[in-house]
Amino acid sequence: MVGGGPNGLAAALHLARNGVSVTILEAKSTVGGGARSGEAGYPGLINDYCSAVHPLGIGSPFWQAVDLERYGLHWRWPDVDCAHPLDDGRAGVLYQSVDQTAAGMGPDGKRWKRLVGDLAEHFDDLSADLLGPVIGIPSHPFRLASFGPRAVLPASVLARYLRTDTARALYGGAAAHAFTRLDRPLTASLGLMVLAGGHRYGWAVAEGGSGAITTAVVDALGDYDVTIATDTFVAGRADIPDADTVLLDLTPAQVLAIYGDDLPPRVARAYRRFRVGSSAFKVDFAIAGDVPWTNPDCRRAGTVHLGGTFEEIAATEKARAAGRLVERPFVLVGQQYLADPGRSSGNINPLWSYAHVPRGFDGDATELVIAQIERFAPGFRDTIVHTQATNAAGLAAYNPNYAFGDIIGGANDGLQLVLRPRLSLDPYSTGVDGVYLCSQSAPPGAGIHGMCGFNAAERALTHLGFPRQLA
């Protein structure tokens, strides 16, 4: 196993649970990838270094099968899952309950239920098909057929179904997690899945930080024949010990660098064409007290999306995709300490945030992030005790899989949104015998759900001739 991010760890665990001896080679001093936590420049606070809120993590079929709670993981939920404020003080408000969410939407209440209610109710059936390769025989074809007509739409078209600007903005903030312009086909899909997963399981955070997920998985690995070798950088194929199968928690570009001419030409061409996504600009704050949001529901929300109306979000995401840094970028704010107060130190709280910026942006957008928060929370600037900013280069230094600051494993646009990393019946296969791609560049994509690793490990088990004993 090359790479010890969430998907590499999930793949290792699935192999080990089926009787395979596994060695994990991790370049950094600790495993975890996007699921690590610790201090970010201010002592006593717990900050999530990348992934922070996990509606698809807690609902992951693989993590549920493993039962990470047995290994010390505790999930925590805020009073409000997500809020999306507007300039006039109103906000779209998302609760785990579909009914409670719809009740606050006025004329859009019934429409919200029709839009996501059935998806939430049958989320487990949907996820069984959607958290795997797109090309295949679905386990629940009727559920998938019901989802399909909504999923193939551009998010900008689906948003027209909602009549109020607060409901459209709430949907738009979820759709913006795709990190691409919202007027392209298929962009409705991720927003619907994020909302449906949230309604089914809530937008939970891990007690003690996202690194607690990694700690639980490592503890689970301790029950099996697994060796973890940290500070072990793999530059080429010669750095990988002889093995019956190799799984790569890497980007397609990194696979090219390691396997080079060993890849079949068609695979090498596809990996060279694989497009990196846009960048994140992350700012970790230490603040005195709470954020002084104008809207009271934002003060109870674990996640706050900042981008104004749906139309504004669509315009800024289009500009960002074209390489322009906008004055008011889409910003995600995480108030994980509301659900998990142990992350704070006295009256000083950690505030997690990142902005959508153009690919490879190497400047400093800290002031843009502060201004966007201040826009909906006047006086926020006065609460700031400390800031630590991380641009594209910093994100890539933290995790080489985040090349150019791309934290989602590749652009989510065009056919690459669903056919990643290439068009194939087995997208995990690299074409090299026994070597599989298990990173978030493979289906189903980004998120601390471990399903990219699980799916790739399933292919490796078939290759090894092992009976499939455990799901």
From TrEMBL:
<protein>
    <submittedName>
        <fullName>NAD(P)/FAD-dependent oxidoreductase</fullName>
    </submittedName>
</protein>
<dbReference type="Pfam" id="PF13450">
    <property type="entry name" value="NAD_binding_8"/>
</dbReference>
<dbReference type="InterPro" id="IPR036188">
    <property type="entry name" value="FAD/NAD-bd_sf"/>
</dbReference>
